[in-house]
Amino acid sequence: MPRALVMEGWRSRLEGLDEEQRELIEGGGLSQRFSQFPLHLIHPAFIGALYALLISLAVAGPIGNAYDFGIGGGGWDPWPWLRDVGFIGLTMMLALALVAHMSLLINKVVLRPPISPPRTLLFSMPFIGFAILLLNWSSFTSPIPELVGWFILVIPGPTYVHLSWAPRWRMLTMLEDGRNPFGAEEVKPTSHEDEIELEEVVEALGTVDVQTD
């Protein structure tokens, strides 16, 4: 099914909301990119797992370098390197998916609207955390800087999901089902036939005004 037809359900109901409400539901650039896909593919748990996958891909190189990418005197054996990367990646994907799902469950209880976190801070933190890990692995190998680096690297994903995406996804699914996420009456989709009828009414009123004058 074309992506435009998949999105038509909740997007067709946006016209029934005011401008401020539409901006709150659509969100910023990152949220708008996610919302281009079907809602069942962008569940908060999937977004959390996706962020963990990106982290595991980023650290695969430095971890491989620690193992010399499996190149040793006895030949090429990448298994220890791939094993550690796979373990880290799967563990983080499971953990962040569970954290994201918990954020969604919490939001369904508190019904909190999405909050836009500071983008500059949120987008720069993964690079800072990655730099701390690289510096520690290459120079210090101390557990405290490594834990700090991992924390700064990982925390932006769950923060974005908890503050922004989980509440927004809840509102999008409500809108998809025809319910108003702002607690008002049911939001009905604006169909092409309704637009044509409205235009005909406006033209008829204009004709009546001209004849009256």
Sum this structure up briefly.
This protein is mainly α and 213 residues long. The protein has helices at residues 3-11, 19-26, 29-34, 44-66, 79-110, 119-140, 143-154, 156-176, 192-212, and strands at residues 71-72, 75-76. The chain has one domain.
Describe the structure.
This protein is mostly helical. The protein has one domain (3-121, 156-212). Helix content is 72%, strand content 2%. It has helices spanning 3-11, 19-26, 29-34, 44-66, 79-110, 119-140, 143-154, 156-176, 192-212, and strands at 71-72, 75-76. The longest helix has 32 residues, at 79-110. The protein is elongated and about 80 Å long. Mean pLDDT is 83; it is low at 1-6, 191-198 and 208-213.
Which descriptors apply to this entry?
elongated; 213 residues
Topology readout:
Elements lengths: L2 H9 L7 H8 L2 H6 L9 H23 L4 E2 L2 E2 L2 H32 L8 H22 L2 H12 L1 H21 L15 H21 L1
Antiparallel strand pairs: 1-2
Helix pairs in contact: 4-5, 4-8, 5-8, 6-7
